């Protein structure tokens, strides 16, 4: 199965951090810990660029939307 990616949909680490309201370094830490939105590694070399798909970033944000603090607490206990 082939998946096509709209290149205009790819965000840099800095762009993604700005959307999420965090520092770029926070995204680096999240990647090491397996947290945060899914990302793409464009190459096998350690210095290869990282990109985020805008749609996945938005889906990640939507999954963290709660109506109350008690709903968040219940979700945190099951995670």
What this model shows, in words?
Helices cover 47% and strands 10% of the residues. By secondary structure, the chain is mainly alpha-helical. The protein has one domain: Arc Repressor Mutant, subunit A (Orthogonal Bundle). A 3-stranded antiparallel sheet has the order 1-3-2. Strand 2 and strand 3 form a beta hairpin. The chain is globular, with a radius of gyration of 14 Å.
Biggest sheet overview: 3 strands, antiparallel
- Total domains, how many? 1
CA distance, first residue to last residue: 31 Å
Structural class: mainly alpha
The CATH topology corresponds to: Arc Repressor Mutant, subunit A
Series of H and E elements: EHHEEHH
Instruction: Just name the CATH architecture.
Output: Orthogonal Bundle
Biggest sheet: strand arrangement: 1-3-2
| Discrete helix count | 4
- The beta-strand count equals 3
Radius of gyration: 14 Å
Morphology call: globular
Q: Mean pLDDT across all residues, rounded?
A: 87
Percent in helix: 40-55%
**Top-tier CATH class:** Mainly Alpha
Task: Give a nutshell description of this structure.
47% of the residues lie in helices and 10% in strands.
